[in-house]
Amino acid sequence: MAAKYQTTHEVAYYECDVNQTMTFPAMLGIAIKTSEEQSAALNRGPEVIASYGLTWIITSYHITVTRLPRVGEQIQVATQAREYNKFFCYRYLWLLAEDGTELVKIEAVFALMDPKTRKVSSVPDEIVAPFGSEKIKRIKRYPKITPITQGQFLPYRVRFYDIDSNQHVNNAMYFNWLMDVLGYEFLTKHEVTQVTIRFDREVAYGHLIESHFQINEKTVDEAGEAVPLQTIHEIKIGEDTYCEAIFTWREK
User: Fold this and answer.
1) Which residues touch 40 (CB under 8 Å, ≥6 apart)?
2) Residues of the chain with confidence (pLDDT) below 70
3) What is the pLDDT of residue 16?
4) What distance in Å separates the CA atoms of residue 192 and residue 212, rounded to the nearest whole number?
5) Taking Cα atoms as reference points, which of 87, 105, 120 lies closest to residue 192?
6) pTM attached to this predicted model
7) pLDDT value at position 163?
């Protein structure tokens, strides 16, 4: 069985928005830090991965939200690298209430990349062996992200402090561009229940990106089933798409 690793964290005010709930960049930051701590404890830190001429990248997240952590709350952060195949590693991360109740579940898809060629590499078995991950043949599929057909957009310039030590925009930062376009009123009256996001290309310092979005109001489909409020998002530079996402929301 895959090894599980867990830490505790107190939610600080600077990790929260005006709703007094934790932001997505903050949640992903502490979740990925926990996964890095587990990797280091298993002697699979970045220096070991670099000895193979490789580095980890995240290609997508699928996030399920029961309730966002609140300012001042003591939470548990847990992680488990459950499965991998030839090219992808599937790591699960949880944010739990103090009593162990699941608040947020994050499924992160990792790949190994050669930083010189910027090409994805196959996953050597010996790299993931200490995690006890199950080797599978299939590629896991997540909800489809439909293209935007009647959207709007706002431009954003990539700033110096958007860039992390790997010389590109940290994946968690994309959420600022994706969500900010929805506006104050929307973000204070709705809360996220599910997110699927896919990263297609790397954004670099100085790029002028466009954050496109489309709001699909809740409705009823042909079978009479309720379809929740969803927003579709694309980060674009010119005609090229760098990131795609779909958010599902509920009213507060």
Assistant:
1) none
2) 166
3) 97
4) 18
5) 105
6) 0.93
7) 87
